[in-house]
Every structure is written in C-alpha cells, then in structure tokens.
C-alpha cells in the first residue's frame, strides 16, 4: 500500500467477530474501508457493523485463505488461530499484520516470556515444567500457567498446597514466581509497517477476583512520572523485540518493592485500551487500522482521564440478555455505554462496557462505580 | 419504551442512508441496538454499517410503512420524506421521532419562519411571494428562498438586479431581508421524549462561497459569554416551540450590529455538529438515539475545542473516488479522518470530513486548514 494505493477501495479482513473486531470494524468503516469478518457465529457482533461475513472457524484453512486472498490486508482480534496456513500466505506476500510469526510466538506464553527475558525485558522468574518436581522449584505458593490457549484468567492456577499440586494443570505449562503485586498496570503500544511506534498512557487494572477477569481500568494510572516513563520504555522495547506491527496490549506487574515486570502481551486491541475510544485522540481500534494499512499512527494523547468498567453477565442467568438499570445509569454524566450485541448472556461473559470521563480521575471512578452498581446484565433464563 | 423495555433487542429504523444515517447507526450499534436503513441506493453508506437495509425511496409509502412497523422506533437523517404516510402511522401510535408533524412544518421554510416569528423568536424580516411585485417589497438586494426542497445552498437566490428578478425562483417562495452578517453561528439542541433538553456549544460556520456549502466549523465560536447564552436561549426556545423530539441543528446569523436571528432549523443531526463525535462527551449522533429511544440525554460538554472541515469532491472529477494526500494528512496530530463510503464522487459532493482537536482553537484551525490543503477527493473520470 504505497502512496498511489486507492484507500477509498481498501478491503480489510478481520479474523474474529467479537467486541474487539466490532469496534475495529466501526473505526475502519469511519475511514471508508470495506470490511469482511471471519467468524464461526453467524451475525456475530462485528458482522453486524461490517460489509460482509465469511462464516468459518479460526482453524478452517480454506476460509482463512479465502479471507486473506480477498482482502488487501488482514488482521485479527484474537490470537488462537491456525498460524500454519497464515504463515504460508504471509510468505507468499499476502499482507497479514501482526505477522503470523509474531502471533505464533505470542500464542506460547512460555516462548514469549523466554524471548522477552533473553532480550533484557524484566519478567517474573519462570521455569518450564517437564516433571512434577519442576512445579516446586520456587517453593509454594507458585503460579502455574498453560503455555497455550489461556485467556481471561483461564489456564492460570495458583498452587498453594500439596493438594493443589495433585490438581495442577496437566497440559504443557510453566511456573512463575508469585510476585508481591502493588498494582497491575497495562499499556497499549502501536507500531506501524514503517516501524513508527507510539505508546498510550499507562493505566491501572482492577480485577473481579471471583473469576480473575479485568473489571475496571483507570486511565491514567496513579503512578509517578519516573515510573510512568519506565513502564513506557519497557513496553516499547518489548514490541520492538517482537518486531510487531499493529496494536499490542502489554500487561505489567508493579511490585510493592517498586519493580516492574512484564506479565504478558496481547498482539491485538486489548480490554485495557477500551477507554481510548472516548479518552484519547486516536482510539486503539482506529490505531490498529492505521498501523496495518501503512498509514501514519494517530496521536495517542489523553484528552480526558476516564474509568472503564466491563459489563459481565450476571451469575445465575443465561439466554437473551436484559439490560437492567439502563435508564438510571445513562443519567450519569459523561458516561458512554457500549453493548456488544451478543445474542446470549452467560455468567461473567463480557457483554458490554462503560467509559466515564471526568477531568478528576477520582470523580470518574465514583461515577463508574455507581454505574457498575446500577447496571446488571441479566438473561431470559435463570440457571 | 418504559423501564421494563428490553433495550438489548431494540430495533431502530433510520430513513436515509447517507453520512448522517451512517454515523447515527454506528452509535446505535455501539449501544447494541438492531438497525434497519431505508434508502433507494443499494449498499449506501449507512447500510454498510447496519444490520439490514430496506431498499426503497423516501416517498415509497409501502416501504416507509414496512420500516416503521418492523421497528420499535423510527427516525430520519433527511427531511424530504413523504410525511403523509408517516403522519398516519404516527397517529396509529407507531413511534416516529421527530414527529412527522414537526418534520412537515420544517419542510416548509416559510411556515417554519412564520411559527418562530409568531412565538417571539428573532428571525430576519421575511415576506411571502405571491406576485412579482412582492419580490421588491424590501427593495434590492434581497434573498429569495424556495419554501420547500432546498438544501446545501440549493433553493436560495440573491436578487440584486432587474435581470435577477427575471431569473428568480419560479416555485413557491418567500423573500428575506439581506442581513449584514458578521458570523454564521450554529448550535445543536437535543430534546428527548420526556421533554428534557440539552444544548451543545455554539459553533461558527464558514462557507465555500463557490457553492454556499458549509465548509469549516469552529467549535466553540469565538463570541463572548453573554452572546453565547443568548444564542443558546434562542435555540432552546425554538425547539420548545416546535415541540421537537430528537436532534435539531439551529443555524443563526450574528449581524454586525450584534443582533441574532434564527436562519433555519434542521430536524436531524447537522453538519455543524459533526465535531461532537470527537469533541463532546456525547456526540449528536448518539444523542439522537438516546432522545428517540426514551433514554436520558447524555452530557453535551465540550471535552476539547476542534475544527471540522468537509471533504468535498474536487471540481472536474467524478466516478470512483480517490483520496489524494491521505498519508500526509494523517501525519497531522489529533486529526480524525471520516470517509463516508459513497461509490461515486461529484464536484462538491460531501465525501467525508476531518475533525482536528487542539486545546487552542487557533492551532486546531491551522492544522485543519493544512489538512484541507493536502486532502483532495479526486475521481476515476475527468469531466
């Protein structure tokens, strides 16, 4: 896509049609591009706002090939995809960003950690698990993680007792020292085809401890300027090391001793960057479109502080979603309501989110927590 | 739509599938609503980002009826629609907002002006044209306007000479005194079903004089606080007088003598409110969705000053659009690029727009004018 490319007819492919694909597509459509979604669910959230859907799974070689060949450039909203076929297409000069090689590396959390460690990026102490004895190399308690396939708290286990050791993860895994966490931080980093790089503000994530899903994001994080710069530097170096093109969500631990460790990296728009839609000059969703279509990156400037709260399906409900409290919640000023259009709710399923702006971050948090109390995503069936 | 209504399955209908319908639909989809577009052009801009399109014209009684009956609530992005069939549906308790009665009144610029005048809203001196002599009631020069069907500078004529009088508008029209304009101002006003009302900041419009199309919008207008309040008050009163529900673009003249006159009112999102997408806590496009679905209005707070520039098709080109200068323009920081996805460009056709944010309005204007110089919408055919 050089300067003579006709962007008014640009065809973009997105693998995955959930909320991330949906908002990415909306931003691509804002710029007038043609968008095709590949997803196995007919009428998935992203397909509802796009030109076209190819119905197919993420390991369906034929459909993946069709998508890539019919589009000028293809990107994705999730990393659990068949990389083999994408690598072949990439090697045959089809445009896929981030590259399937980067995707493959990141799919394996152990290899990801190893590369970062080798390149001098601070990560918590970790060790490959080959034998049962390996589990106790750092003593107990310790964190065990699957190498592949984990997300939203799945594939992670805290081993505290001998009994936990018996019930440990049985697939390929590694252990990680339990760090003394003060805050969980995150930062979105964008890098385009030319290597131009841009970091968003550092944010602070709070988790729903019942299921270990990121629940609340405060932008910016309440940390001092030195630490802020350190986190940015580490995150930018991480993406350079990966040679990634697109948007990357870098999750980090800040320990009580003031150390910073990279926890993991997502090679796509990230839940911790939803706030950028309302808060930043260019959202992470527009930024990935710019990055993969060889356009200059947009400004990552924070226009207003904000707090984002995920709307998870209530425990005890499934079926057609019902949004309880929408009238009262939308009374809250500077609140933006997102609902993804998923046909079925399930306990803790990500159904939507809200972002509340306020010049004063504490006020934004107060308003966001009030909305969190009011808004409940119930369902047509009690379970 | 009371508090027990299930908003997760809300079906919204939009009459008209251009850029206004497109962005309205994107905001409705953000909130998870189901959107159907009625438009005669297959795959029009709004249909590309919506669930469904009914292909039909704006005077097609059958298709209008189908849309209204299949949706929980129907709104529109243009006012040149068959109001007769919509009035019948409205009277049969189908939800259509703004009401077709308001739409009908506004369609006739003379009746609109008369009502505002009767209710004490300041408007320029005007007079119905029944005979040729009426044209000269205020002397020359004078403005002649068609009562119905005008938009974007069409249906407006400046009569200066005897010759102009011969070439005057021949359909139903009225004349308006030529006021000594200092600035053309505009303000978006929202009113919901409960009568809650909210005004956006007052903005200043600059026009492309070749075709009298609004070209540049500066938000906020550079006017003092007293005048600002006066404009807001006049605009709010105008919408109350109309008993309108939805979004209204109120255009005003500020004279060199400091008087303020309402020029005209559009009963829909307005070009002068495009800036709200990036600049305000709630965009005009989300606001209309909230207003017509009986949700509370969102905050109209200006988060950042900005300047919006329309991207009009270059003179001398038609056919498939080509965006010249996109790489260089997108280098400009805090610039948001909108391209509508129209398949054909024409001279002066509205093909897209950009919005540039900056804490300093003059800087925003400088950046926007630079982008305007760089970005050219050319076409596949020279004419």
Automatic annotation (TrEMBL), chains A, B:
Family matches, as SUPFAM superfamilies: Glutathione synthetase ATP-binding domain-like, PreATP-grasp domain, Rudiment single hybrid motif
GO terms for biological process, alphabetical: 'de novo' IMP biosynthetic process
Residues involved in ATP binding: 109, 145, 176-179, 184, 263-264
Stated name of the protein: N5-carboxyaminoimidazole ribonucleotide synthase
InterPro entries attached to this UniProt entry: ATP-grasp, ATP-grasp_carboxylate-amine, ATP_grasp_subdomain_1, PreATP-grasp_dom_sf, PurK, PurK_C, PurT/PurK_preATP-grasp, Rudment_hybrid_motif
Keywords assigned by UniProt, alphabetized: ATP-binding, Decarboxylase, Ligase, Lyase, Nucleotide-binding, Purine biosynthesis
Documented EC number(s): 6.3.4.18
GO cellular-component term (any): cytosol
Catalytic reaction annotation: 5-amino-1-(5-phospho-beta-D-ribosyl)imidazole + hydrogencarbonate + ATP = 5-carboxyamino-1-(5-phospho-D-ribosyl)imidazole + ADP + phosphate + 2 H(+)
UniProt entry tagged with the keyword Transmembrane helix: no
GO molecular function: 5-(carboxyamino)imidazole ribonucleotide synthase activity; ATP binding; metal ion binding; phosphoribosylaminoimidazole carboxylase activity
Protein task: Catalyzes the ATP-dependent conversion of 5-aminoimidazole ribonucleotide (AIR) and HCO(3)- to N5-carboxyaminoimidazole ribonucleotide (N5-CAIR).
Organism lineage: Bacteria, Pseudomonadati, Campylobacterota, Epsilonproteobacteria, Campylobacterales
UniProt KW Cell membrane keyword: no
Species the sequence originates in: Arcobacter aquimarinus
